[in-house]
Here is the input.
Amino acid sequence: MRVLHLLDHSAPRRSDYSRRAQALLEGLRKQGVQTVHLTGTGQADADGAGDGWHFYRTATADRRLPLIGRAAPDSRLGAAMSTAALALRLRQVARLTRPDLIHVHLPSSNAVAAWPVARLAQVPLVVDAERRGHALPAYPFPRAERWALGAAHAIATGTAQVRAVLRAEGLAAKAIAVVPQAPDLLPGRLAGVRMENLLGAPLLAYAGGLAPDDGLDLLLTALAQVRRRHPALRLLVAGGGTLELRFERLLAQPALRGHVVFAGPLSYRRAADVLPRADIAVFPALGHRPCLQPSRHLLNALAQGCAIVASDLACHSELLVHGHSGILFEAGSRAGLAKAILDLLAQPWRIDALGKAARDFMSTRRSWEVTAARYRSIYEMVLNNCDASR
Here is the structure.
């Protein structure tokens, strides 16, 4: 089985996206799937290797037109030209490599370029689909993207919530498989990173955004309440940027002053260093906006064996078993969050128990080998269905 993978343009670079993509490709190859790799528009580099992998690349489309000038990349004209350039490049690579199946990775808008190529070549199409957050730019042709998803032979999503949204959007008759995300970090915990005798100075960690719906405001107000019983409690905030200024007045309160540190955004390498040192990792998203999939920081914290306290959003409840691999509290409830933290601090032996259960779950149910096996099952189902229909 030879599968042509259409990836984001950043796949050959050193990034969190490339690590995830290459981990999946390596897992597929171990299971006997031949992989061919094409990146989307955004690079002018020639075809070649990236971190030991060969990538066919799509150069950035020339958006200069007579009388019109240069089209902006985020404009409808610029997007249309990039889609056309990607479709032509995909057609070339498909003719050269003759794949049995084309797999479009995120962003799912690349399916707009892939479906006509797959149709002309009579090759099945599998598409990874997501629902974008408000902070990300929307594809200017949503109807075309929805059409392309409907034309795919199968769709893969990260959570049951995304699948439900896609079905509500009119894809109920389409085969939609849930392929849960795997963490960036390998399951495990650095030996000796947590001090056994903390002398009543436990460490909380928060990794995520600083927007109101991310819940850091809620965590800070709950922290002020918890510190009445644990005055040495500290909080490490793995986030930063201009939104950090929103918290100046709150952090100036006597209950929080000197006990909260902003460490900047949490990259892949720093995550491996920071997360294992926390006693409790808190994910207090409020859920005012739809939260369809868990934070990658949450997946990494679980893989690193952190004790997790998270709001009871659907994407968290799907991942965590309350009292076994994490503690869930009512989203938006300061009292519920404070109680969850206080209960764990009052029973410190539960911290390691929760962390071990979380780490075991990620190593057995959310590894890249398991993810690759699920994708292989989708490939086989699609190919068998296409053979039966001929």
About this structure: Residues 132-136 have pLDDT under 50 and may be disordered.
